[in-house]
Amino acid sequence: MKIALQVNGEHHSLEIADENTPLLWVVRDLLNLKGTKFGCGKAACGACTLHVDGEAVRSCSYAVKFADGKKVTTIEGLGNEEAPHPVQQAWLEHVVPQCGYCQPGFMMATAALISKNPKPTDEDIDKNIINICRCATYYRMRKAIHRAAELERQRLSLTPKNIENGEE
Amino acid sequence: MAKNKISRRKFLVRGGLGTIGVLAVGTYLFRNPIRRQIAGALNTADTPYLGDTSTPVIWFEITEENIVILHSPKVEMGQGTFTGLAQMAAEELEIDMSQIEVVHAQSISGNVDSFATGGSTSISALWVPLRELAATMREMLLQKAAEKMEVEKSTLTISQGKVYSGSTEMSYAQIAEGVVEWEVPDTPKLKPVSQMKWVGKPVPRVDLADKVFGAPIFGMDATLPNMLYGSVVRSSKIGAVYKDADISKAENMPGVVKIVKEDDFVGVVAQSFTEAENAKNAIEVTWETTKNWQTQDIRSMLEVGKGTPFVIQKAGDVDDFLADDSTVESSYWSPIGAHAQIEPNGALAHVEKDKATIYMSTQVVKISRDEIANRLGLAKDQVNLVPTFLGGGFGRRLHTPNGIQAAVLSKAVGRPVKCFFSRKEEFQNDTFRPPTHHVLKAKLDNDGGIETFEHNVSSGDVAFGSPMVPGIAEPILGADLGAWRGGMVQYGAIPNYQAISWRVQLPFATSWWRSLGLLANTFAIESFMDELAVKAKKNPADFRLAHIQKDDRGERLANVIKKVVEVSGYKDELVNNRAMGFAASTDANTPCAQVVEVSIEHNEIKVHKVTCAMDPGLVVNLDQVKAQCEGAIIMGISASLFEKMEVEDGALTPTIYGPYQMAMMKHSPKEIDIILLQGADAPGAVGEPPLGPIGAAIANAVFRLTGQRIRRMPLQDHLQV
């Protein structure tokens, strides 16, 4: 099956023998973007979380056929050292990662959360951030999520559209 | 100490790709406390370094950009060792943190730790040796700069990776350029801590950006051109021995390159991970099994009294009190625990005619390398083990047959093969934290003081049976040092006490799990201490303080207890439906005391706040020591409240996150207050000690909330609602 994907802004046209191949392996092994991790293969840990059309998706259990024609964003496309995404900026400020393996999944889940809810409460965080971190960096992560939301609100308030409209 | 001197003739320099000068030092002995114990009986004044000394090994490189690259003999698994080592080296090298990078030493060129990365020993073991190496290199650079500038060495100044003579300056890279012979000075005097610029500071992790921007740094991420994917069939049954396999269905499945049948396993090599997994699942293996084990069998084997006892600690006279009617006795249990690290075990192997390169996440670089060399029939120096960043260690990567399997598959197809565990295999074929049973006995005197105390711990093996502790060491050690970790009585003012370790060999693999026996032993001892305090009608912290001996170790323990009580405002009564719980432990000379604030909401034990006072000696990185405490505390909450493996019909279960319940964001306390005391001049253990008190502290709080004394972990399972 021919699959058309836009990954981190780049268009790819791929010939995939098995359309049920998890998106994770297409991203990791065909496109060589290793930031999205394999943890369990059953959508139970969230290490493989990426965005499909802006929605957080656990890509180990998401057949590539469902991503056909859609926009995929991975940790590599979220931001970079020169222009970190607010989530990455907050993660840097709070020095969240320990082993770091699960962190891209958490950052992608957080980016999706704050894009919909730029002022999440602790309860919102508990309900929405349900990945697993064995180093148990949750304590700093919670602080970083609040900080990321704060940075995101600042970013939104500075976009030209909002300035023109006189919005906060 | 003579053995801490650097061997002069081993310092040499050689050119390297992309580097101007490579400074290398060979034989350098450093020994960590665990190995010291193991080798204790064999220890002589001049024990040789156990690594390969036939070829020079690289500690530091200087790049053209004047960056110093430290080749770490310890692996980075999240504990922050790379950052601490960089701080220590930068101190003596007189460079900024921006001028140092850390990589894993490869077995072929680097200093391979002959034991392991583990036991909370990396920073403490390298504290002196690494700074001596760095200081020696600094003096070599100064000497060479003096020659090149044609001035006296004593007139030079040094700062931020540059050497100055008046208005002339040379970077380290410029100094090293073209040098073929170096003069190695005697080991210089080290800078006193009071003059240190980086040690003690909360500098950001050196691997922070890689981990925030998704760099491919883990074993799972390793790739090579022309690479294939491997998968090995692993039994779900305890004690199953591979006999034979029917590969007829699997052979012709899509993507299959080769099915590899060995005497001890069968594996698949395929074009992709999913094709390898699919073909593996189509292989029908004949296993030889013995017994259909159940949880009850294990529990029955484990009862104190059934295994082999070894007295690990004894003071005063405990023999008479056992028959006494006034003896208080309690029994505690802890379950089988899984490592559940998120990066599965795996390896990328490329085996060629007379060499092999293996990329993998391992805590035992040398053992992994040696095992692979043995299996392939190669000499050890023909195998280059390239350690990658570990997606969690926790002791899981101290057994590494996955490296051998990847190598065998690669050899069979003559191409690089990446091979790793499925999650089901990770859970079923783990080397588990052993379950434990504890029997505690004590007698109180008329004033409510402890007169006699006994701790029995019965556990599956931890250190024994592992590749790091050869069988011949067992009689020297007597008892399993992993199983009894945290099992000794830390209250030396009790007149009569003893601790007994009972060894039980379980039918499945049990091994090192972060903090080893500390989690379970402290849960049992500190819950029992709380029982005694309640019985004696004493404040639990005061009760402990009254039983601490007056020596340095006792003083440090007393100090963390007093500090945690002061900062947490510990109260023995409920406030706003929350109870506080207290516990303390001493692990690897690091005392730690914790107070938790707990409530029960919707029948769930909820930890709101943890105050932790710990004395790990000198702190190298303030932020990362705190990070280790925070992580260990929440991992300890996870293990104490939720985690357990069962044995059902001969298999370990469950085999997936969720059913294997772990702490998540919603279970994590919103407040964690870490207070660090410094009762020693050098760095001590950090990564494991804070796992000690948490289980007992929670159980002690639950007792104050409900009157229930829960004596089995996981606590949530045994809460009566």
Describe the structure.
The complex is a heterodimer of chains A (168) and B (721). By secondary structure, chain A is an alpha+beta fold. Chain A folds into two domains: 2-78, Ubiquitin-like (UB roll), CATH 3.10.20.30; 86-165, DNA polymerase, domain 1, CATH 1.10.150.120. In chain A, 40% of the residues lie in helices and 14% in strands. In chain A, strands 2-1-5-3-4 form a five-stranded mixed β-sheet. Chain A is globular. With 721 residues, chain B is α+β, with helices and mostly antiparallel strands. Chain B has three domains: 2-212, Aldehyde oxidase/xanthine dehydrogenase, molybdopterin binding domain (Aldehyde Oxidoreductase, domain 4, 2-Layer Sandwich), CATH 3.30.365.10; 219-289 and 345-420, Aldehyde Oxidoreductase, domain 4; 296-337 and 431-718, Aldehyde Oxidoreductase, domain 4 (2-Layer Sandwich). In chain B, 26% of the residues lie in helices and 24% in strands. Chain B contains 17 helices and 28 strands. In chain B, the strands form seven sheets. In chain B, strands 11-12-9-19-16-17-18 form a seven-stranded mixed β-sheet. In chain B, strands 1-2-3-4-5 form a five-stranded mixed β-sheet. Chain B has a five-stranded mixed β-sheet with strand order 14-22-21-20-15, covered by helices on one side. In chain B, helix 9 runs parallel beside helix 10. The longest helix of chain B has 28 residues, at 122-149. Chain B starts with 11 loop residues before the first strand and ends in a 15-residue tail after the last helix. The model of chain B is unreliable at 1-55 (pLDDT under 50). Chains A and B meet through helix 3, helix 4, helix 5 and helix 6 of A and helix 5 and helix 16 of B.
